[in-house]
């Protein structure tokens, strides 16, 4: 369907008088606290690499710490989902913030005493990334218990825009803070987690539905239950496969930008940053506008329209060598991605039982993260072998195949925003 009521299944019965989202104190506290912690996390992540480069001069060691920060998305995602479904989400988020503060304090002590060891920073980066992942999954499942059913679209639009803004601003902020003094990015990150903790402590709303006593199950059994439920959702299964395939291709294209500008046309590194910043703004605007698109487009139109537009735009990379043209292309593609991310998140949250929110979100996150890692690995080899023009054309062909496969799936033609498709 292309519109209709948003008081849909899986979200509970709304109260007779629903507060506007802007007056929802609990959501504002949650949104602000998590947003500040995201900004602090991005700024602190930049600090690790800069600190090691200044201390050791080794790019390899800086890369090791960066890899340690990314590993949780592949190694910790599924167990984190089980944890989020087993335990109280608010308590988990509070514990994650406390843990992240303690981890950053250890870095501040190391910087203050001059005992900076790559192994220590890698361990902290891994721990911080793992706690952030649990925090993120818990918040994602909590949102539908904090806002009214009809406000889910607006809430997730704001969350997606918040995440993209943090990604856009966090890196430059971390760099500026490091130029002031090398411990500033870590202090800022630690303070951001303290503020997030304070916001959580001020929230009194339950972050999950009340549950009876659950049977004792092994982690493997609970993981299998989540994966099995997700597999039965035919539209969600196709949508995740489509998004994962698209992520592989986008990671290849992201590597293509510096290859085109630096290697083939001798532009400055700053030009690459400008192009990526412009594309980030496009994604943020897409997220903010998703609420407007939701009542106007069916799920099929959103999914197939997004991939079809990407199919048309991706091959243009082969001929767009001007930074402005590249920035415009990526901004439009990211705009579409922002819209798709929000609407897909709202659909998944609405149809997923509250007791499975963590595992469903973790399984989806693992697919997307794994696809991104594969794309980054594949992109380097393809660019060395084929060059940017052939790679861009090949990516467009691959996107066309993904679009055709999604369009042919019966579950895509019949999906609606509030109905499961098992």
TrEMBL record:
Q: Which Gene3D superfamilies match?
A: MFS general substrate transporter like domains
Localisation: Cell membrane
| Membrane topology (UniProt) | Multi-pass membrane protein
Q: Which residues form the Major facilitator superfamily (MFS) profile domain?
A: 1-413
Name by which UniProt lists this protein: MFS family permease
Q: List the residue ranges forming a coiled coil, or say none.
A: none
Q: Which UniProt keywords apply?
A: Cell membrane, Membrane, Transmembrane, Transmembrane helix, Transport
Q: Which GO terms describe its molecular function?
A: transmembrane transporter activity
Q: Reply yes or no: does the keyword Nucleus apply.
A: no
Which GO CC terms are listed, alphabetically?
plasma membrane
**What organism is the protein native to?**
Streptomyces olivoverticillatus
Tell me where it mainly resides.
membrane
InterPro entries assigned: MFS_dom (IPR020846), MFS_trans_sf (IPR036259), TM_effector (IPR010290)
Pfam families annotated for this entry? MFS_3 (PF05977)
Q: What residue intervals traverse the membrane?
A: 29-53, 59-80, 101-127, 183-203, 238-261, 273-294, 301-320, 326-349, 361-383, 389-409
